[in-house]
Task: structure prediction
Amino acid sequence: MGRPPDKSPLKALDRGLLPSLMGYALRRTQSAVFADFAATFAKAGEALTPGEFGLLVLVDRNAGLSQMALARALGIDRSTLVPILDRLQARGLVVRRPSPTDGRTHALALTASGEKALARFARLVRAHEKRIASGLSASETRTLIDLLEKVRASARSL
Amino acid sequence: MGRPPDKSPLKALDRGLLPSLMGYALRRTQSAVFADFAATFAKAGEALTPGEFGLLVLVDRNAGLSQMALARALGIDRSTLVPILDRLQARGLVVRRPSPTDGRTHALALTASGEKALARFARLVRAHEKRIASGLSASETRTLIDLLEKVRASARSL
DNA sequence: GCGGATTGTTTGGGGAGCAAACAAATTCGC
DNA sequence: GCGAATTTGTTTGCTCCCCAAACAATCCGC
Result:
């Protein structure tokens, strides 16, 4: 009874109930996808996070946006947005212009080089998306996004 | 041409290509699910992150585990694990015992109160999972987890 | 035009993650 | 068997994300 505790270097661990948990799969997949995103950009000599990409798209498609509106769209606090915008502005991709109609707010916009960069980034994102979806059919990809949206709707705060 | 810029407080933003991106859906859903997890625990007067829960389950099911093995199973660096274990140990849930067979490693284990806490936590996690899956049928939930696993397999590092 | 709300910023706090360096202990090479 | 290489846990330093509270400037209601 009791063979000596297995010292083989690659023993698979017992994960208990974890594999049956949606939240667990979500977290692990998200982390792997994030790594793939970063690697895709690094290999192209670019640096961008998924969050920054989302921000750039939102600013591109909604020029003149205020920081509050952007923060709400991103689901983050307005104070969290400040250093992110600082960084993007320091890279010359985004500008904070004074709003002509409201002295409290900034009218956010992409710079010319921000537009050009976003076009490059979008190509990389498409390549990244293609790779992470490579194990799925087109309809499976659609299904996955739909199911994720349903889950998101049910997870609403409280 | 150009009615005055719509100042209505809840104008839906143009999200461009974002809604078609799996990575985007993944990130937003993960964030909502995380918030639901935190809210579930807060309402029960407990405090735990999804990562901590995964760690507790792994230690429970694989008593005597080393920190390296645990870090590998969690997909994080061994130096990242240290403060997390410190915190859990300070809460009296986990112990680092000297390994009888290898003086370099610690044999991790749950304390008695760690076991009891994990039982409480598992109940909360099940309630949380039930809620976030409330918009999905059982087979849809299964499908979602399977698709997530497929994506994770395709996203492998590089 | 005055008081209350909104906006952007700053400060303070916490957690997650990596890389590099280090001491202690083990294992490998021979 | 014994020195060298490797492994493990830790510390330090860095970056990033996130929130809450406070504050000044500005706007809006009345």
